[in-house]
User: Fold this.
Amino acid sequence: MSSHARNRLTREESHLQTRSRLLAAAQKEIARRGISAASVRNISEAAGFSQGAFYSNFQSKQAMLLALMEEHMQQEAVAFHEIIEATAPDDLEETLLEIAGWLKTLQADRSWSMLALELQMHANRNPDFAAKYDESKSFIQTEFAKGFALLFDRHHLAPKLDPLQMAIGFNALWSGFAIQGTVASAQPADEVVLIFLKALIDSADPKRADEEMAAAAGGAAG
Assistant:
């Protein structure tokens, strides 16, 4: 590899690290101060950079907010898919237990719950941001839907509900618990979401042989 190529790679890595630190600082600032009070200056200083570094990574504060939401939701969609793919295809109970453990981990991250609430409130008040926010959220829900399709396919089940609708319901339920926080005498959020998943699974029918063959053919064509 040439010296020029090595330098270019180093700059790319530095850019990604700067962006990551800015997003991490933004999450903490927003959780602590709220979106309105978390200024570009505060976020930049908290990350240890100038405002110039911020604007070299994000066109605007709203662009940063969208990137922050997309990064978190994309990570969650990938983690959900990987859990389903990594567990034994003949052990549904193991898959559900792994999902429950993952949900407990998510629930422990209170800063993300605060951020989710702030982003939704900001979208409710800002039509321009709302349009981009909803577009990004729709894309991520499509990614979650792929995980649901995989879950049912691996266990040879034909769901009664479209995977995209499952993803929307799953995210709405989980986001609601995250925003609501702890309620006295309430059942843990991960347990309630698990009941939701089990209800979807229990309502499904076994896949017929022709459906299995069609799915396999579609996967090979893809």
